[in-house]
Each structure stands twice: as structure tokens, then as C-alpha cells.
Amino acid sequence: MFRRALWWIRAKATRAVERLLLRVLAAGPVPKHVAFVMDGNRRYARSHHQPIQQGHSDGFMALRRVLEACLRLGVNCVSVYAFALDNFKRSPEEVRDLMNLAHEKLIELSKHGELLQEYGVRLNVLGKTSLLPEYVREAISHVESATRNNNRAILNICMSYSAQDEMTSAVDSAIRLSLEKSDPNRCEITEDDIDAQLYTSLVGSPPLDILIRTSGVKRLSDYLLWQCCENTQIHFSKAYWPDYGFWDLLPVILDYQRKIWSQGKL
Ligand code: FPP
Ligand code: MG
């Protein structure tokens, strides 16, 4: 009983310190768009002798924690890699469990009084969603319409996504639009035309400031490749995604602020 009370007090105190630090950080330059490659769920589960599904479930808890920290900080847009097109090659059981988890959590996120409503977040699911099962697509429509009028921040959940697919679809749309507007024998498209047709641009995401990948793997894995441009800062963390939290994010934000200040960009 005494130990439980002590644990509770410690958790409360840590949360209060985190909130205070977020308020201090929010007074400096804040990135507008932060993206996460949430990697390491299965290794986390194995290291805790738990089923893989528990790793993905704890991964969703980490997503809530990190999203809330970003929103408190004042980040306008958070993008997360939840399911790569390549992930369809995993075992049918794991794909089914991930789809069930996505369905359950999307419905949960659409509820009134949830995080997205509290912080005024519009949720978008980006990717080749036609490949997702119908019950997941229905949950996506439900949460997208439930949060459509939220305008303080954006959460992009990338599912059935690959950057190569995104770029191919953007080029295709840019060509189609150009042909509709001009001479069909002279189709010209620019970088800006392609940029405007990216999944992230179509939902109004600002340029990507920071990309973070967890679990010690140093690869981009076909995520937001067009968006990772001149000014995007890329960070690799050794933490498995379900363990990732405020104390991992803190040095990333401090580094961003130091770089902005040293460039005299304030
Ligand atoms: C990568 O770790 C993680 C995934 C493929 C799934 C990520 C999904 C969530 C965090 C939950 C998403 C929630 C919603 C609302 C869609 P891994 O499986 O590659 O693990 P490993 O690198 O240790 O093998
Ligand atoms: Mg992985």
C-alpha cells in the first residue's frame, strides 16, 4: 500500500516536471512538423517476454504520450508511420492483429472528450487506403469526419504507406492536372506541382522540420522521402518505440532550438 502511494506520488511529480519543461520549451522556437518512424515494437515485446501484439498495443500508448507532449509544446503537425505497404508481407496473423488494433484505436480516438477533441486535432490517414480492409476504411472515414473541423493541429497516421507510392501518385496527379489545364501535347510539371500533390500537402501539412526513428535502426524505410529536404533534422534513438517518451524527445527539441538560434533564424 505504502509502495503504491509512493509510486503514485512519483508519477504525479514526474508528470508535473514534464509539463513545466514543455511550457519552458514552448517559449522558444517550436518545430511545426515532427514525424516518427515508430520502430521496435516486436523487439520490445520479446525483451519483455510478451506476445508481439502487446508490443504494438504498448506502441499505441507511446503514440498517445508523444502526441500529447508535441501538442503541449505547440507542434502543429505530427506524422507517424503506422503501417508500411511492405508490412502486408508480414504473417497474416500479425497483419490481422494490427488491423484490429488500428480499427479499435481509430474509433477510440474519434470519441468526444478524447485527445484529438481536447487539443483540436484533425486526423488524416495517409496512404493507399484502398488496400486496407473495409472495416478499417470505415473507421478511418468515421474519425476523419469526426475531427474534420478541428483546426489547431494535424495528426497524419500513415497506413498502407510508402514514400515511393506517394511520389508516384503525386506525379500522376500533377500530370493529370497539367493536361486538364493546358495543351495536351505539351505537358510540363514542376517540383512545386509534385509537392502540392503529396499526401501530406493535400491535407495541409507544413514542411517537415524533424524526423525521428526509434529502435537504433538507421534507415528511412521509404518514409516521407520527398519531405526530408534541406532543413529537415533527422534523429535516431536507441529506445524501442513503446519506451519512447518525453525524456527522449527533450534533447531533440533542444537541439532544434540550438540550431535555429545559431542560424539567427528567430
Ligand atoms: C514497427 O515495429 C511498428 C509497426 C509496424 C506498427 C506500429 C503501430 C503502432 C504503434 C500502433 C498504431 C496505431 C494506430 C492508431 C494505427 P516493428 O513491428 O517493426 O518491430 P521490430 O522493429 O522490433 O521488428
Ligand atoms: Mg521494425
Brief write-up:
The protein is an alpha/beta fold. The protein is built from 10 helices and 6 strands, in the order αβααβααβαβαααββα.
Word description of this protein:
The chain has a 6-stranded parallel beta sheet with strand order 3-4-2-1-5-6, with helices on both faces. The protein has a domain at 1-76 and 210-266: 3-Layer(aba) Sandwich (Undecaprenyl pyrophosphate synthetase), CATH 3.40.1180.10. Helix 2 (41-47) crosses helix 3 (52-73) and helix 4 packs parallel to helix 6 (134-146). The termini are far apart. The model has no long low-confidence stretch (mean pLDDT 95). The protein is 51% helix and 14% strand. It has 10 helices and 6 strands, in the order αβααβααβαβαααββα.
The computed structural class is alpha/beta
User: Rg to the nearest angstrom?
Assistant: 20 Å
Oligomeric category: single chain
Strand order of the largest sheet: 3-4-2-1-5-6
Unreliable runs: none
Succession of helices and strands: HEHHEHHEHEHHHEEH
The name of the CATH topology of the domain at 1-76 and 210-266 is Undecaprenyl pyrophosphate synthetase
Sheet with most strands: 6 strands, parallel
Please give the alpha-carbon distance between the first and last residues: 50 Å
The 3D shape can be described as globular
* CATH architecture label of the domain at 1-76 and 210-266: 3-Layer(aba) Sandwich
Total number of helical segments? 10
Question: How many β strands by DSSP?
Answer: 6
- List cofactors, ions and other ligands: farnesyl diphosphate, magnesium ion
Q: Quickly name the level 1 CATH class of the domain at 1-76 and 210-266.
A: Alpha Beta
The CATH fourth-level homologous superfamily of the domain at 1-76 and 210-266: Decaprenyl diphosphate synthase-like
Summed over residues and divided by their number, the pLDDT gives a mean of 95
Strand composition percent:
5-15%
Q: Specify the helix fraction band.
A: 40-55%
Keywords: Magnesium, Signal, Transferase
GO molecular function, one term: ditrans,polycis-polyprenyl diphosphate synthase [(2E,6E)-farnesyl diphosphate specific] activity
Pfam family, one: Prenyltransf
Family: Belongs to the UPP synthase family.
